[in-house]
Structure formats: C-alpha cells, structure tokens
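User: I'm curious whether this sequence folds into something compact or stays loose and floppy. Could you predict its structure so I can see for myself?
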Amino acid sequence: MKYKILSLALIASLAFSCSKEKLEPIPQTALSDAVAFSDSARSVQQVFGLYSALKAGQMYAGRYQVYQDVRGEEFLNQTNNAVTAWLTWQFNLTASANEVQNLWAAGYACINRCNVVIAGLANSPVSAGLKRNLIAEAKLVRATAYFMLQQLYAKPFTDGNGAGLGVILKLTPETSSGANDQVRNTTAQVYAQIIKDLNEAEADLPLTYGNATSNTTRAHRNTAIALKTRVYLNMGQWANVITEGNKLVPTSTTALPLTQWASTSGVVHGLNASVAAVFANNTSNEAIFSMPFTALDVPGTQNGLGWYYNPGPNGGGEFVINTTGSGIAANTNWRTTDARRSFNVVSGALTYLRKWPNPNNAADWNIVSRYAEVMLNLAEALANQATGTSVDARALAIVNAIRLRSDPTITPFAPADKAALIDLILTERRIELMGEGFRSSDIMRRGQTFPAKGVVGSLAPSAAQYIWPISIAELLVNKTCVQNPGY
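Assistant: Here's the prediction. I'll summarize afterward.
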C-alpha cells in the first residue's frame, strides 16, 4: 500500500538521526502518530494517502464506475471474463465474487485510513487552521467511500426513506484485529453520516488552493457542495438538492451564454464550451474533483476506464456500446449532430466509448464530479419540485444549456408538462454522463426496473440481484452482519 511506502520513505529519512534510533528502529510497515502527524509536511502527506486509497483499482481508478454503468443498459459485454465485471453485467453475483469482495475491502480500507488520519490529526501540533482543513479533506474522502458502498450493497434511500439495512458505519480507527462483530446500520443512518461529514467538510475546507491541479485533485469547499447535490438527489430530497445547487449554479430562468453557467464563489467551475475539452484537459474548469494518474502511478491494466471501453491496443475491449434496443445510443433524440456522439467510435462491427483513450498512462484522469452533473442534479430537483404539472423555467434553461453545448443546431426543448421535462432531464443524464458511473444509481433511486440488454433479461427492484450481496469475507469474521435477502 502507498501508505506503507510513504511511511518507509519517512523512516528512511530519519534512520541515521541518532544511534538510539538505529538500535530501536520504528517498524518499517507503520509510523507512530507522534511521527506521522508531527509536522505540517507529514500531516499533509498522510492526507494525500487518503486520495490514493480513494483511487484504488476497485474504486475511482475505474472499477466502481464500470460496475455502476454496466449494470445498466448502455453496454454489452464482449469477453465473458469474470475478473472484469461480466458477473456484474449479467446480474449473477455471489458473496464470493471478485468484485463483491474486493470493492468491500477497498472501501473499508479507505474508510479506516480516514479514521486513522482524523484521530491522528486531533492530537497533532500543526496549526489549528491547517488541522481543520486536513480533517475536512479526510471527512470528504470518508463520505465519498461510504456513498460508493451504499450504491451497491444496500437498497436505495428512496426505498422506504432509508429504513432498510445499509452498510456498517465505522468511525474510529481499527489498528489491530478483534472487535469484528459489528451490525449493519440503517441506510438512513449511513446517509446521515455522509451528510454530516460533507457539511463539516464544507465549513472547514479552503475556498481554493490557488492552482488548477490542486483545485481539481484536492477537496475544497465547492467539492463538498457538489457531492452533496449528488447525495441529496439519491435521497430524493429535492429541496436540499436545490439549496446546495444554488450555491454553484446561476439562478437565471433564461438562456445564458455558456461562459455564464459557472460558480461565482470559491473555485470558479463552469460548463466548458466544449465537451471534448472536458476529457482532453484534466484541469478543465468543468472538473470539480478528479483522480490524477501519472506514468508512475497508473490505474492498472484491468482497472482503468479505457481498458473496459476501448478495443486493443489501448484497452481490453470488455464492453461495447449497446446501439440497439434499450441503449441510449439507439435513442433518436440523441442526434447525429451532437458532439457527444464523437465519443462513440466504431471499430469493426462494434462501437466503443472513447472518453478515456489512454487509461494506462498519465494522459487520463478519472473525473469524480464535474459541473455538468451538478447542473443536471439541480435541474432534476427543480423539475420535481414544481407544483402541479408546471414546467420549471430554470430547470428547462439548464437542460437546454447542456444539450445546446454539444448540439447548437437543435431547437431548444419546449416540453409540454412536468413529466415531459423530467423525462428530458433523465435522458440528458444518460447521454451526458455515459460511462462515468451513474446509470445504476439513477435507475435504483427512482425505483425502476433494470432494462433488458443483449442476452440479459430485465431485473425488477424486488429481485435479489438488484443490490449486491455482502462480501463473504465480512460474513466469515463478523457474525452479527446480516446478508442481503436472496443470497
């Protein structure tokens, strides 16, 4: 783990400081809190390690987003490879499946590192201001990890207002074995903790780091706000989505130039004039939070998004775009003049998604949150909040801005009623966010059936495979953890 590598590097720098340390060295697999958080530089490095945990292979290196998307109807599997999400795609998981065990382990490893850092910083001698900032970053990472786990291992909040079983809340460091028997919390309790972490993060994170790279790869105030719009959307709490969205998105109910769809406080994020530029430029103003990769820090051959969605030599060709039936690519409302169609590249008889053409080198970062998603979150909440069957003017202005950004030749939308506007927004989400890890959550939070795709039939909310089983590795050591029904 990079945390251990970091610790080893720090130990090496201290190795010859005195003879006593030579005789009684600190173990080379860990640092004591007294050392790890002894000054500003070390404390910051420990927080950087949290981002490394968040971008682990099973998480935001790509696999989490892949799992979320291939459960939906937009992609067809080509390889029948159980190692690379085939079982997830066909709704045929067991508690011992690779993705079920590995993502659960990666999620809780990240969460525990956050808990270790939060506890370590509490007693650190660093300045009070820096301490608040760093703890806030740790809380945002922890909230993100918990949200990811909830999306796959638990029924959505909107099913019973959070009354069902969620995952296990662990908020204190676990530095030794034992105390394995921990019950699952309710979904409402987990979401309450996620919101608490994000609220506290928003209050204590800096407004900006002063440079585009840090403003994209480290959490700042607007990062917390953007993630809250996503969390509240998944809770079906429209008023809260609107409250958070209003902090970042203009309140105009009329069409605005693209450059004016932007935040005005903190880091200035906005709707980029070119959707292609969002993926060609890692620090585009549209990217609110991204996972960076370099030539020495790659997502891994079977982790990166491009591996799954590109043919060789740049990828493994695991999944192709579903161009018929239920897939959004077959929707005639997604016109050929739309610039987002340029991501759909035909190779042979198959169509691949090329948002990430270079997944295994430094070229492609993984976007966790971008401004267009925040706009769509807000538009959906506004549309749902409207009284009666009325069309919310601001929601319509937002969805028109996003469509016109990529297809300026289209006549602006003019839906007849509220239901038609909501349908437009949901369709626009499928087009705009395709392959970015939202489709499964968007289906489940609205209580919908997963549509049939290829040889795989539809899946109703009542089916066991609607959510993942709890990892067998957890159940073997945690005798109080309840398995999801049907497994």
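Summary: The longest strand covers residues 287-291. The radius of gyration is 22 Å.
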